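Example 9 (inverse folding). The structure is encoded as follows.
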C-alpha cells in the first residue's frame, strides 16, 4: 500500500508545550512500516501555561474559562501543525491527542476524559483532515482511555524475546507489558508530576533540570513510606491516573514535617523509580525500555537501574527516539483510524473490545479515506535510512 505522511501532535501532563512528530506509515501484510521524518516542539506562552495549570484540580474551571482555553490551545496546536507540515514537506493527515484537562476516574473505572485543543483550528490552518479526541471512544467502551501507548508498544516489541516492558515517563508514568499471557498496560503513578510540583513550590523553577537538586539530597525513608502507602499502587490493572490525583495539593497534604528542598526532590525521585520498578518486577519484565522526558533525568535513571536487575534501555536503542515516542504514537493512532483499524488494545485499557478511535474533522477538500484495511496488523517495523523492512 501507499505511504501516508502523518503529523502527530500532543501536549503531555507537564503542560509545557506541544510535541510534534512526522512519520510515514504504510500497511504491509500483517505489519505496519514506519519511517520517522523528524520532530519539533512549540512551547506554550507562559501566560497560557499558567492558566492551564490553574485550571487543574484543585483549581476551578468554569464554562467561560474552558471555552477560552479550548480555543487558545486549539490555535497553538494549529501553529504546531503548520510547523509539522513544513517539516514534512507536506502531509496527508494530522492526528492530535490534544491537551488533557481532566481525567475522571472513580475507583477502578474511568467515567470520562476531556482533552482540549479544538481541531477545527488545525483543519483551518492546514487544510488537512484532523483526527482528534482519541481517548473518549475507549472510555465509552469501558476502558480507561489511557495509556494508549499499549497499541504502539505491543506492535513494536512483538518480536522481542522474553517479556519486554516499555515505560514512558512523562508527568505520569505508564508501562506496557509485551510477551506475557496478554498485552497489559497501565499508569504506574507519578512520573515527573510531583517532582515538577515540588520544584515550583520550593524553588520557583518549572523543574529540577537533570535531577541536579535531587542529586545533592538524601531520601527520607519515612516520607517515602508514607507516599508509597497511597492505595493507587495496590489497585489492579487496568488503571489510570493523572494530575487530578498526583498534584500540588496532594504534595502539600503529605508534607507535614519540614524537609530540605534537596531531600524532598531526592525522595520524590525515589518514589517514581520505586513505583515503576515495583510494577516492572510484578509483571516479570525481562527487559525495560524507557522513553519520555524522564530519560533526561540521570538521577532517576540511576535509581531505576539500581532497583531493577534486568537490562534498562532507552527506546532510541531500539529505533524510536525517546523524546518523540508519544508524538509518533499519536501519528500511528491517526493512521490506524484513517484505515478503520482499532487503535486500542482492550487488554491494556480494559475496553470491552477493539474500537476505531477518534473523531474526524474534514480539511479544505472532500474527505476521501482509503479503503478499510482487511487485516489487523500484528507488528510494527521501524525503518531507518539504512534499513528496509528490518528493525
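The amino acid assigned to each position is listed next.
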Amino acid at each position: 500500500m501507499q505511504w501516508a505522511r502523518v503529523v502527530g501532535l500532543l501536549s503531555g501532563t507537564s503542560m509545557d508545550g506541544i510535541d510534534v512528530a512526522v512519520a510515514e506509515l504504510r500497511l504491509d501484510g500483517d505489519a505496519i512500516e514506519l519511517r520517522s521524518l523528524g520532530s519539533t516542539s512549540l512551547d506554550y506562552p507562559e501566560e497560557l501555561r499558567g492558566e492551564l495549570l490553574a485550571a487543574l484540580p484543585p483549581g476551578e474551571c468554569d464554562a467561560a474559562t474552558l471555552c477560552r482555553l479550548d480555543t487558545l490551545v486549539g490555535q497553538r496546536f494549529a501553529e504546531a501543525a503548520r510547523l509539522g507540515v513544513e517539516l514534512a514537506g507536506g502531509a496527508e493527515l494530522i492526528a492530535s491527542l490534544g491537551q488533557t484537562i481532566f481525567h475522571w476516574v472513580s475507583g477502578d473505572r474511568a467515567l470520562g476524559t476531556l482533552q482540549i485543543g479544538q481541531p477545527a483550528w488545525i483543519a483551518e490552518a492546514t487544510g488537512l483532515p484532523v483526527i482528534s479526541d482519541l481517548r473518549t471512544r475507549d472510555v465509552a467502551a469501558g476502558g480507561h482511555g489511557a495509556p494508549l501507548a499499549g497499541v504502539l508498544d505491543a506492535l513494536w516489541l512483538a518480536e522481542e524475546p522474553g517479556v519486554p516492558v516499555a515505560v514512558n515517563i512523562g508527568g505520569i508514568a505508564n508501562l506496557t507489558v509485551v510477551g506475557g499471557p496478554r498485552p497489559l498496560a497501565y499508569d504506574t503513578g507519578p512520573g515527573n508530576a510531583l517532582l515538577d510540583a515540588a520544584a515550583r513550590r520550593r524553588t520557583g523553577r518549572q523543574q529540577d533540570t537533570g535531577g541536579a537538586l535531587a542529586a545533592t539530597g538524601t531520601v527520607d525513608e519515612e516520607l517515602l513510606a508514607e507516599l508509597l502507602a497511597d492505595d493507587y499502587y495496590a489497585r489492579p490493572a487496568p488503571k489510570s491516573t493523572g494530575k487530578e490525583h498526583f498534584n500540588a495539593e496532594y504534595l502539600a497534604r503529605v508534607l507535614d514535617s519540614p524537609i530540605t528542598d534537596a531531600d524532598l526532590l531526592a525522595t520524590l525521585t525515589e518514589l517514581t523509580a520505586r513505583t515503576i520498578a515495583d510494577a516492572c518486577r510484578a509483571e516479570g519484565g525481562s527487559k525495560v525500555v524507557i522513553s519520555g522526558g524522564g530519560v533526561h533525568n540521570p538521577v532517576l535513571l540511576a535509581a531505576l537501574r539500581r532497583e531493577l536487575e534486568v537490562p534498562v534501555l532507552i527506546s532510541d536503542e531500539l529505533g524510536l527516539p525517546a523524546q518523540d515516542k508519544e508524538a509518533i504514537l499519536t501519528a500511528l493512532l491517526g493512521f490506524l483510524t484513517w484505515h478503520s483499524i482499532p487503535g486500542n488494545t482492550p487488554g491494556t485499557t480494559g475496553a470491552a473490545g477493539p474500537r476505531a478511535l477518534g473523531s474526524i474533522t474534514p480539511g479544505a477538500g472532500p474527505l476521501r479515506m482509503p479503503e478499510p484495511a482487511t487485516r489487523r496488523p500484528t507488528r510494527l517495523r521501524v525503518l531507518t535510512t539504512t534499513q528496509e523492512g528490518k528493525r
